[in-house]
Amino acid sequence: MILERHRIHETDSFCDEALERLLDAHPRDRLMALSTGAEPTRPDEWRLALVGDAGGRDLLDAVRAGRIWLNVLQVDKHHPEMAQLRDELFEEIGAVLPDLVRSSARLTLLVSSPGAIVYYHLDAGPNLLMHLRGTKRLWVYPALDDRFAPRAEVEDIFAGVRIENLPFDPAFDDAATCYDLEPGRLIAWPQNAPHRICNGDSLNVSLAAEFVTTRSLRRQNVWLANRLISRKLHVPCRSIVDQGISAQIKSVGYRVARKARIDRTVPGHEYVAESRIDPGAEGGLAPLGHPVTVVY
């Protein structure tokens, strides 16, 4: 676990006016709005809402009115100041992680409501969070432990055939480490550690940085090789060791299998939207006339 300080929040890049301009300019197909409930055991309440032509001010008003997460995807790709921030950040990260794959670095801007939650889940790759506005509580659970993330479901997350949310039991909290985040904190947790978040009572803004290393790619390939061997060849394959000769053989073998189209990962997920952003509606969302399927 890494917990450090940063000073990004001291710039003017994340005040309301700057966020409105950024949201106005961001491509709508790279802007994802998700509504949440209040109960961490109900991931079914994590639902896509259509952004439509809502402007930056409308989006912020809707976020303040409800329980909404805005995921501003690939923010570094579409805004030069964010690209500069990414480059500066990963220059420092590269000094610590010599096997960092520099081209993999990307940022997602997160703008979320007071009291909104992120459900219990794990991410396939390594990442870190830079908190900028508001307060939030983060729970982190033991990584690569079948008690907290069943192996088959982790394999499916690596393969991209399911979203990252996992079944949550409140008893898991006995094994969690809890962190209260304020503006100016940077946190990184072990790769594949399940985690969840609950916002405080004000608008929250954070930057999530995602990247891969040669070791994280090898780990992913080991898990995907296990999945392929166990499910398609029906040969038990349980070892998740990601270093050494065996791991290298699995990793190379899986890359060959993918090139031969014996197995393929999924590039996106389907979400069904039943509401749209509307700052004048209760909770910042208005119902759609019919469900709409969107792939992200």
Mean pLDDT metric: 94
- The run of helices and strands is EHEEHEHHEEEEHEEEEHHEE
**Multimeric state:** single chain
Largest sheet: 10 strands, mixed
User: What class would the helix/strand composition place it in?
Assistant: alpha+beta
CATH topology name of the largest domain, in short, is: Jelly Rolls
End-to-end gap: 29 Å
Share of helical residues = 25-40%
Write a structural description.
It is built from seven helices and 14 strands. The protein has two domains: 2-212 and 267-295, Cupin (Jelly Rolls, Sandwich); 215-259, no CATH class. The radius of gyration is 19 Å and the shape is globular. Helix 1 (16-25) packs across helix 2, helix 5 (151-159) crosses helix 6 and helix 6 crosses helix 7. The strands form two sheets. It has a ten-stranded mixed β-sheet. The chain has 296 residues and is α+β, with helices and mostly antiparallel strands. A hairpin with a 7-residue loop joins strand 13 (270-277) and strand 14 (285-295). It has helices at residues 16-25, 56-65, 75-78, 80-96, 151-159, 214-231, 245-259, and strands at 2-5, 31-35, 47-50, 68-72, 106-112, 117-121, 127-133, 136-140, 177-181, 185-188, 195-199, 204-210, 270-277, 285-295.
